[in-house]
């Protein structure tokens, strides 16, 4: 379980893409899941992990940097 959590922390975009692809694959393979439900789950996973991914790649504002002086 720790390996899965660590992978999500290190590669949130990869994990969200894999989840979306897996849902599509399972739906196409005959899993009794509607397209709407698969899209909803995929969208939720992508949205949650996108927020996390953004927090990992967007730098915080450096208030001590000369360009930020007012």
Q: Could you explain how this protein is built, in words?
A:
The chain is mainly alpha-helical and 70 residues long. The protein has one domain (2-56). 70% of the residues lie in helices and 0% in strands. It has 3 helices and no strands. Helix 1 packs across helix 2 (12-28) and helix 2 (12-28) packs antiparallel against helix 3 (35-57). The chain starts with a helix and ends in a 13-residue tail after the last helix. The relative contact order is 0.13. The model has no long low-confidence stretch (mean pLDDT 77).
Domains (count): 1
User: Strand share of the residues?
Assistant: under 5%
**Rg (CA only):** 18 Å
Structural class label: mainly alpha
User: Which regions contain 5 or more consecutive residues with pLDDT less than 50?
Assistant: none
Span of the ends, CA to CA: 47 Å
Helical content band: over 70%
Number of strands: 0
**Total helical elements:** 3
Shape: elongated
Mean pLDDT: 77
Along the chain, the helix and strand elements come as HHH
Q: Describe the sheet with the most strands.
A: none
């Amino acid at each position: 379980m720790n390996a899965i959590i660590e992978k999500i922390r290190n590669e949130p975009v990869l994990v969200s893409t894999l989840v979306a692809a897996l849902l599509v694959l399972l739906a196409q393979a005959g899993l009794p899941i509607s397209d709407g439900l698969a899209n909803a789950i995929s969208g939720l996973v992508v949205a949650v992990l996108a927020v996390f991914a953004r927090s990992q790649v967007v730098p915080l504002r450096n208030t001590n940097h000369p360009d930020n002086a007012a």
